[in-house]
């Protein structure tokens, strides 16, 4: 009888270790961190949005449109940089109109979204819009790298979305 109890204990213990090991492999391979397959598949949809083609006539696209999935925060993104050859006010006025006409709803606007000195940048978008895209809520940000101390001659558009709802401007 003792042999049967020991065998049962060994089997239960081995099964428990296997479950813990499998859970660890799952967590390290993206189960608790990184992008889901659904979010990775969402990135090309975001990159094809026509709003990323819209820009004031005085501005020009800089570089290629980019897209991907943010592994740290687990959301899909797509964006485009533009050369800033008109006033910031003109850019913001243009996108308030263009985004609204494209079905985006303004969520917030900030005249000076720069983070306070010594603080972390959480939301540096000058304009933030929302719109349903492919069954989830997408966020469109109009932002200026100069608000972070970079590239005073550029501005950017970026769309983010996530199947689990963790995306933001």
TrEMBL record:
<protein>
    <recommendedName>
        <fullName>Lipoprotein</fullName>
    </recommendedName>
</protein>
């Amino acid at each position: 009888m003792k042999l049967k109890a020991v065998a049962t204990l060994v089997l239960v213990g081995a099964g428990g270790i296997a479950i813990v090991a499998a859970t660890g492999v799952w967590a390290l391979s993206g189960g608790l961190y990184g992008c889901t397959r659904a979010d990775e598949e969402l990135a090309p949809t975001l990159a094809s949005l026509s709003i990323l083609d819209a820009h004031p006539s005085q501005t020009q696209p800089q570089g290629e449109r980019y897209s991907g999935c943010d592994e740290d925060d687990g959301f899909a993104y797509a964006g485009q940089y533009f050369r800033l050859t008109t006033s910031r006010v003109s850019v913001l006025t243009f996108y308030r109109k263009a985004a609204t006409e494209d079905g985006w709803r303004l969520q917030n606007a900030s005249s000076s979204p720069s983070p306070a000195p010594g603080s972390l940048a959480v939301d540096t978008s000058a304009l933030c819009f929302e719109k349903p895209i492919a069954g989830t809520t997408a966020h469109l940000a109009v932002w200026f790298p100069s608000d972070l101390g970079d590239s005073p001659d550029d501005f950017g558009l970026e769309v983010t979305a996530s199947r689990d709802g963790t995306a933001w401007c």
